[in-house]
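User: Can you model how heme C sits in this protein?
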Amino acid sequence: MSIASRGTRCINPAAGRRRAAKGARAVVFAAAPLLALAAPAAQAQSADLGRNLAATCANCHGTNGNARGDMKPLAGMPADKMLAMLADFKSGNQPASIMHQIAKGYTDDQVKLIAAYFAAQKPAAK
Ligand code: HEC
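Assistant: Here's the modeled complex, given as structure tokens:
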């Protein structure tokens, strides 16, 4: 259909507006089932967020927490252990060269996501 022929079909502007309003209602109804899907979507989002936050550790601790050389690997570290270590870095109880600064850069929720991410990673064979 050409643009010209579509233009000539709708000569009453009010009819066009009514049609637009009906379209808007249809969008609201179509969105309702999406709200029911929001919960699993939020979980997937936090897994992504954990991975993204953990990516900031990769420069030093290796991809997915698999460090090379002397650096401490984080892959497979139990989440409780990592949370305790990061809390000690944050509070200054554990002396550090850099980790006390890094640990202060994350909220408790973010640190939990990071710890869960690394706990789920497989340590690479050395
Ligand atoms: C700039 C490099 C660097 C980055 C980035 C970095 N770390 Fe570290 N990390 C270190 C160093 C160096 C140590 C040894 C302690 C120290 O000197 O700070 C360490 C130690 C650790 C330890 C203790 C490991 C052990 O077995 O003793 C944990 C846990 C840790 N880091 C977690 C993290 C997490 C989580 C991130 C990302 C949010 C991160 N690190 C980002 C350099 C880094």
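A couple of observations from the model: Residues 56-57, 59-61, 72, 74, 82, 85-86, 96-99, 102, 114 surround heme C (CB under 6 Å). Residues 44 and 50 are 10 Å apart (CA to CA).
User: Helpful, thanks.
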